[in-house]
Amino acid sequence: MKTRPASGRQHTNMTMLRSFLVAICVFALASPPAMAREWKAGAAKVDITPRQSLWMAGYAARKRSSEGTLAPLYAKALALQDESGKRAVLVTSDLLGFPRALSQKVAERVRRQNGLARDRLLFNSSHTHCGPVVDHTLSVAYDLNDEQWAAIAAYTQELEDKVVAVIGEALGNMQPARVRFGHTEAGFTANRRLSFNPNGPVDRDVPFLRVEDRRGGLRAVVFGYACHNTTIGAEYCEFNGDYAGFAQAEIEKRHPGAMALFVEDCGADANPKPRGSVDLVRQHGEELAAAVDGALGHALEPVRGAIRSAFEETPVQFATPPTRDELQARLGDKNVYVQRHARLLLSRLERDGSLPATYPYPIEVWQFGRDLTLVALGGEVVVDYELRLKKELGAEKLWVAGYSNDVFAYIPSVRVLKEGGYEGGGAMIYYGQPGPFAPSVEETIIGKVHELVDRCRRK
């Protein structure tokens, strides 16, 4: 069958159509999609308040398990995607800390389910002393029976599932976003090592991220502070997030539909001042929320470019551990915690033949273009690290967080280590570690931070 030749007008129209389609294809190949050239963000939260009475973490002096809930506990996730399409997720929590085993399990499940590499996932905890015990963190501090430990194990598994799910939810609801960074201040943090220096160092800085939609509406705010969440003492037995939990709730109340996430900075040697009551918890929370809220409308630095990241566990040296004979002698000590610690280390000697000489210390760095460097350090980090890194890397575009990825011990500076005391080495008993860190601890950590920051900035 013969085809009918196209008329002149039809031929011209077809030629124009082909040219138009070719132009579209060329433009599409030459330019990445518009959505890939802008940031995206997604946020999600999940209630992690235990549904039954559990032992509460943080205070060895606490004598009974939880007796209800003053305010819910949450795990929250903020997913960010940069201009190139690379993703990263920050997880915050109203917990004493994420132990290493839990962080590793969650990270592996997220890698399999969501394709997110370990250096793209950051865990931080507020270090509230009114949350549940997780896994075996600070086990020497608690005199618990098998049934109580079994309940903690069941809660820890439930927590793992919820954190994996909330990360997936945040990744699944990402929308176009703009991110800005700024600083403000809050005044209630106070150095608690008064016997060594009544005018000890503190950092009142409150770094924060403002995450907004295309129209400038607030979607999420991340804010940090270097101060223990210990406004309430050991006698209080209702779950709550302390001042950080109340600050987050207040910001979310002021900005319906937005999510507030708190990051604990290097506040291992700082306490709220004053402290000791629920009224003071609310007071400090409202002060911190007001500081953040008042700064959100200021001219803030935009965060742009690529998110470059690095994560490493570097060995940090312990001092010479106690001998078997020394541990045997400690079994007769009048201090019950010294006895428990000795029994724990003796059991490790029987199992492994020796005590560990080092600990795999986690350090994570996120570099946001040229606009912001986030350094996340494991353990209970004293403020000296934050102040030193701000001097060496520049304070304006730096955020230094502690209590990240693993909370397993206090991390003293050389100054604090030499002074001694609880943060200098005494707390290692409660964490079940073989002893204080060696004097190399500060330079080892600071040196690795510089190495990872340089690596990210060169990418």
Notes on the protein architecture:
- By secondary structure, the chain is of the alpha+beta class.
- The chain is 36% helix and 23% strand.
- The chain contains twelve helices and 18 strands.
- It has helices at residues 8-30, 100-114, 146-172, 242-254, 278-296, 324-330, 336-352, 383-393, 414-419, 421-426, 428-431, 441-458, and strands at 40-47, 74-81, 87-93, 121-125, 175-176, 178-185, 189-191, 205-212, 218-225, 259-264, 270-272, 301-303, 307-317, 358-368, 372-377, 380-381, 398-401, 410-411.
- A five-stranded mixed β-sheet has the order 4-3-2-1-5, with helices on one face.
Q: What is the radius of gyration computed over CA atoms, rounded to a whole number of angstroms?
A: 25 Å
What percent strand? 15-25%
| Low-confidence segments | 1-17, 19-36
Average pLDDT taken over every residue = 93
Distance between the termini: 63 Å
What letter string, H or E per element, gives the SSE order? HEEEHEHEEEEEHEEHEEHHEEEHEEHHHH
**Biggest sheet record:** 5 strands, mixed
Q: How many extended strands?
A: 18
Strand order of the largest sheet: 4-3-2-1-5
User: What is the tally of helical segments?
Assistant: 12
| Secondary structure: helix percent | 25-40%
What shape does the CA trace take?
globular
Structural class: alpha+beta
Summarize the structure.
By secondary structure, the protein is of the alpha+beta class.
Identify the notable features of this structure and list them briefly.
459 residues, alpha+beta, 5-stranded mixed beta sheet, 12 helices
